[in-house]
TrEMBL record:
Subcellular location: Cytoplasm; Nucleus
Pathway listed: Protein modification; protein sumoylation
Keyword Cytoplasm: yes
One function term, GO molecular function aspect: SUMO activating enzyme activity
Principal subcellular localization: cytoplasm
Keywords, alphabetical: Cytoplasm, Nucleus, Ubl conjugation pathway
Protein's name in the database: Ubiquitin-like 1-activating enzyme E1A
InterPro entries, sorted: ThiF/MoeB/HesA (IPR045886), ThiF_NAD_FAD-bd (IPR000594), Ubiquitin-activating_enz (IPR035985), UBQ/SUMO-activ_enz_E1-like (IPR000011)
PANTHER family listed in its UniProt record: SUMO-ACTIVATING ENZYME SUBUNIT 1, UBIQUITIN-ACTIVATING ENZYME E1
Classification of source organism: Eukaryota, Fungi, Dikarya, Ascomycota, Saccharomycotina
THIF-type NAD/FAD binding fold domain segment(s): 3-322
A Gene Ontology term for the protein's cellular component: SUMO activating enzyme complex
Any one of the GO BP annotations: protein sumoylation
Source organism per UniProt: Pichia sorbitophila (strain ATCC MYA-4447 / BCRC 22081 / CBS 7064 / NBRC 10061 / NRRL Y-12695)
Superkingdom in the source lineage: Eukaryota
Length: 328
């Protein structure tokens, strides 16, 4: 089955249409996705206008449910897309396992954005049981993340032959295995079958895999974005988004995250503590475009089966112009 056919036959659920969600929807709809449901119970706030481009610029809509306001703008991108919406709250659907399973079983792939940690883990427990791949993404101003539990994925990648031929049953890392290799001597190509296995997202929050994939020098250079992003999963979002978070609180919690992941606390710098104190939970349109575009591209790669998807944590640090992928 070709990539376009898979795009047309895959039913995708997107939970929360914020800045990243808007970018994901744009890229998937333009990319040819046929069936998309958007689940979002939020009401329009004034700050949404600055980073969510589907919203009509009408201040009188503030306080109204957001998703019904954007349907026409999304369909303008591709009028053949089968677009549906669900304005139920997360709790009303997912606090009941039978109801959650009935709802989620309608979809082949799920993308959730800006989701609290407890909801994320709860959702992932359902998607695992139903064998449905899950992407989770979020941002804090100039920083962001994508976490994936695609359960298991097999891809066939074609590469030029090197001096040393690739061999079957070779581990690329703890989650990625070359299971088979066929050789095209005439074209000097290798067709490499790669199996990616994924862990539940809950296990990422206590993973000690980083020291196994980074040497001492790389660990010292690790961006503070990693521990600070994971710190904010356990920090309550301020009522007023313009309020800064307490720097000492962030430092203390980030140090605990470093200990949990077995990485040096020295990576936490005053500069990054101040960045995250001011930017936590904020949306910045250019960074949302970067994260949303990357996520949508990975979904298409996942469906193509011609490339190995992200496995399993992408961190975005636009201060350093870095987007490293870590295996947690």
């Amino acid at each position: 089955m070709g990539t376009q056919l898979r795009l047309r036959s895959t039913k995708i659920l997107l939970i929360n249409l914020g800045a990243i969600g808007s970018e994901v929807v744009k890229n998937l709809v333009l990319g040819g996705i046929n069936s998309l449901e958007i689940m979002d119970s939020s009401k329009l706030k004034e700050e949404d206008f600055s980073s969510q481009f589907f919203l009509p610029d009408k201040p009188e809509n503030i306080g109204k449910l957001k998703v019904p306001l954007v349907i026409d703008q999304i369909k303008d991108l591709n009028n053949r897309v089968n677009l549906t919406i669900n304005t139920a709250t997360f709790e009303s659907v997912f606090d009941y396992e039978d109801r959650a399973n009935d709802y989620l079983s309608n979809f082949d792939l799920i993308i959730a954005t800006e989701m609290p940690k407890a909801f994320m883990i709860q959702l992932n427990s359902y998607t695992r049981k139903l064998n449905i791949p899950l992407y989770v993404a979020g941002m804090h101003g100039m920083f962001g993340y994508v976490l994936l539990d695609l359960i298991k994925h097999t891809s066939v990648v074609t590469k030029d032959m090197g001096n040393q031929p690739r061999r079957p049953n070779t581990k690329i890392n703890s989650n990625k295995l070359i299971s088979d290799v066929s050789y095209d001597e005439k074209e000097k190509k290798e067709n490499i079958t790669i199996i990616d296995t994924y862990k539940p997202i809950s296990e990422m929050f206590s993973s000690k895999e980083l020291p196994n994939q980074l040497n001492r020098r790389q660990l010292k250079r690790l961006s503070a974005a990693f521990p600070l992003i994971f710190t904010l999963f356990d920090v309550e979002k301020p009522v007023y988004i313009e309020d800064s978070l307490d720097v000492d609180m962030l430092r203390e919690k980030a140090s605990l995250v470093c200990e949990k992941h077995d990485i040096p606390t020295a990576v936490i710098t005053d500069e990054y503590l101040n960045f995250f104190s001011r930017q936590a939970f904020t949306e910045f349109a250019p960074v949302a475009a970067l994260i949303g575009g990357c996520l949508a591209q990975d979904v298409i790669q996942y469906l193509s089966k011609k490339e190995s998807p992200i496995n399993n944590c992408l961190i975005v640090d636009t201060i350093r112009s870095e987007m490293p992928i870590y295996v947690l």
